[in-house]
Amino acid sequence: AAVAAKALGYSVIAGSASVKLPQLLKVFNSGSSRGLSPVTTACELAASTVGFLYGLRRGFPLSAYGEGFLLAGQTIAIAALSIYYARGRSLGLALTFCAIFAGLVALLAAPSLVPLAVIAAGQACTLPLVLAGKAAQAWRNFSSSSTGQVSLITYSMLLLGSLARVFTSVQETADPMLVLLYLGASAGNAVIVAQILYYGGADKGRRKEKSG
What we know:
This protein is mostly helical. 80% of the residues lie in helices and 0% in strands. Helix 1 (2-16) packs parallel to helix 4 (67-86) and helix 3 runs antiparallel to helix 7.
């Protein structure tokens, strides 16, 4: 089981290298982040960043948390692109946001500057952050009866990854906070995938009516 968990963990990391690229490309190609909840993007960015720092500072095997770094990198790109389009294609504002984020991560990663207790407290907040982020996206989809530029591929991969992480967290860390985190993320991802499948059909119907 331990070997299987480690192999699965590295598979999740490998998959996470491109999990948000479909979402990033969808925003880039459309020139719009319509349908994406800014609250969800912020919560996902905070949760993945803190998750990576927590695993790093606790000395967990890389296979147990390594995707956090890759997810954070892709999420910051989506956030920066969303800012760019929402603020009249302001490249300076988008780059400033990225620079501030990078500086904050460097600060939190330094044991001499930030005690582990602070990171652990942040990790304790990731479950409500993840749940709030998923709920914000689900509510936005529901209230607008559309998922806009939300990517089915990305959220399907996130669902598979979070389900896999439930198993690897039990096997490799035995940390109840991580297990609850991934259970909550799995539930939220499942709801959003179901909404994309449901409202995606509605979006196609509306487009056909307009073209007709």
